[in-house]
Every structure is written in structure tokens, then in C-alpha cells.
Amino acid sequence: MPRLCDICNDARAIVRRPKTAQSICKECFFHVFETEVHNTIVDSNLFKPGDRVGIGASGGKDSTVLAYVMKTLNDRYSYGLDLYLLSVDEGISGYRDDSLETVKRNKEQYGLPLLIVSYEQLYGWSMDSIVAAVGRKNNCTFCGVFRRQALDRGALMLDLDHIVTGHNADDVAETILMNIFRGDISRLGRCTEIATTGEGYIVRSKPFKYAYEKEIVMYAYLRRLDYFSTECTYSPNAYRGYAREFLKKLERVRPSAILDIIHSGEAMHVAKDVQLPSLDRCQRCGYISSNSICKACVLLEGLERGIPKLGISRTKQDVEAGPRESDLVHFEKLRQDALEMRKTRQNSAACPQSACACRSESGTENCS
Ligand SMILES: Nc1ncnc2c1ncn2[C@@H]1O[C@H](COP(=O)(O)OP(=O)(O)OP(=O)(O)O)[C@@H](O)[C@H]1O
């Protein structure tokens, strides 16, 4: 006699939820998974009607499930959001080029507009060329810093209010552990927040903050979603790898460990008299930064001067070096384009092509 679902007590149980250890049927699993994400969104007041929300879409399982669930919930609960897929092409051949093909298919499958921005276009360097210059050891530092800014710059181009990413409960718990191990109080405070503000005004949030990675994989599998599952060609972040391994061991003996760590992280507060770095603008590109020159500009300068270690072990003089004309021109142009686009949007009707991300007035001049 097959075991019946612990929730509906009617259909056959086919999954055991890692989060609650319940044995449930497929339909109940979809329902509880989606409802929990909806509750996270509502409880945290993540969006307001009319928000333009970009889904950071890498083609991997987390962001593919996020795109599907965001679209489903937006339709089901009438959030009133304008959803976009926003992808960053880091320029990693044999990895990101293939995963972006998945995102292009998702664009059609979910009927969402897609914008792809590339490191090559924004910084003049692809990850392949960076790795050729710096080797494999520190390349994740470059990639992480550049991706964060690239998403913000893509968001400016699309005139977004909000970016959502597929960071899940396991990612958040790992980050909390890493910040505790490193004693990084300032990041520990921020990493437990469900939403933070990036470049000036673009909010960035994690609707999967309480969703277990195992359940996201199950969801993708049972819904037969089209996603890309290969690991990055370049070396993984070693320090995160240790935290991940530690977390997996804890989860084996106590499945609630992931949520326990998140709740502990949320309960920690930095004392009011602790001096944290204040945020300002990068003198070179205008990106939000706690130094006079932001991390991406320092890394870029190192690459271009042929001393890539500059950004990894930088001196005070390096950081305080005056702005470079070429960077100022490059980023000023991006900013002007974004402002121009915003003005156009305010003064005119949106592009009539429903799946177009260009925001052009005529809808034909700039669209292909
Ligand atoms: N190239 C990219 N373009 C757009 N968004 C990205 C890109 N890479 C990562 N992201 C966003 O950041 C989130 C976390 O990415 P990360 O690579 O750390 O995790 P992941 O578990 O491999 O995610 P995924 O399964 O979605 O690839 C992704 O879910 C996605 O929302």
C-alpha cells in the first residue's frame, strides 16, 4: 500500500521534504513551496504594484526556478510587477555561453523580456581574458565584484526598481558562517537582510532566502524546468567551499541547521557604537563604494597596468590614485544613456512590443 501524502492524505507521497521531513505528493509540494515564497515576499513587503523587477538570470537551477515562481506568483496574486530577465555574460566560454542559451529559451517559455550585459561591453575584459592575465587562483574575486556592478548597470539600462536573485537558504547560511569565521561584522549585519539597496536606489532582494537548495532542485526537476547544470569552468571559491562542506555536515545530523543559522544571524545585532565603513561614491565611475575608488575600478586598473594583484592586495596610494579619463568617459556615457532612457519613459508611452526591453518611445527604432 503506497504511503499517502501527509498534507492532503489523498494522493501518493513522492517526496520527503528536507525542510520539514513530511512525505508529500507532487501537487502539495508545489503548493507549499510556492506559498512559502509568497509569504516571504508579503511578510517582507518586497514589492509594490508597478515595480519594474529584474530577475538575475544565470540559466542555473536557482534563477530558473526563481523566474518561473516569480511569474507564477505575479499572475496568481496580481502583484502588478513588470518582470524582466537580466543576465550577465561574464565571457566564460564553454560555460556561460551555454547557460545563456538556456536563458534565451526561458525568455520564450515564460514570455519575459531579456537583457544581456557583458563584462566585455562594460569593462573591456571577459573572464577568459582575465584568467589568461591573472591565472586561476584569484579569478573569483574579479568575477564577484564585476558581476555585482554589472547587474546594477543592467538594471539602470532597463530602468528597474528592483533586482531579485536566486540566493537560497543554503547560500545565506554559508555566508553567515563565512562572516563569523572571518569576524566580518559589517558584512554579517548586511548578509542576513532579505533586501539591500545597491547603486543609489535599486533594491536587491532574495525571495528564496528561506528556501532550501534541495527543495529548489526538486521543484525544478518535478516541474521539468529547462535549466543548465554545469559548474563554472574556473576554480570555485575555496573559502565558501569549506563553509558549504561544514553546513552539509551539520544538515546531515540536524536538517533544521540551515534555518537555525539564518535565524541566529538575524538575531545578532552590531552594537551602536561600533564604527562601520560609511558608503560613498567611487570618484572614477560613480558606483557606491566605501573607498574613494571602488573595488571594480581598482581591479580594472590593475589589469590594465599589467599588475592584476593590485586589487587583491592594494596599497593606500593605489586606492587614492586620481580618476582616469577613459573610465570617467566610459561610465559617464553609461549613466547618461540610462538617464536619457528614464526621461524617455517618463515622457512617453512604453514600447508597444510586449516582449521588448528597450523602453524606446517608438518601439521600432531601437528594437530588433
Ligand atoms: N551571470 C549571471 N547573470 C545574472 N544573474 C546571475 C548571474 N550569475 C549569478 N546570478 C544571480 O546570482 C544568484 C546566485 O548566483 P550563484 O552563482 O552564487 O549561485 P547558483 O546557485 O549557481 O545560482 P543559479 O543556480 O541560479 O546559477 C543567481 O541565482 C542569479 O540570480
Automatic annotation (TrEMBL):
GO terms for molecular function: ATP binding; nucleotidyltransferase activity; tRNA binding. Keywords: ATP-binding, Cytoplasm, Nucleotide-binding, RNA-binding, Transferase, tRNA processing, tRNA-binding. It comes from the Eukaryota. Its main location: cytoplasm. ATP binds at G56, A57, S58, D62, V88, G166, D171. Belongs to the TtcA family. CTU1/NCS6/ATPBD3 subfamily. This is Cytoplasmic tRNA 2-thiolation protein 1. It comes from Coemansia spiralis.
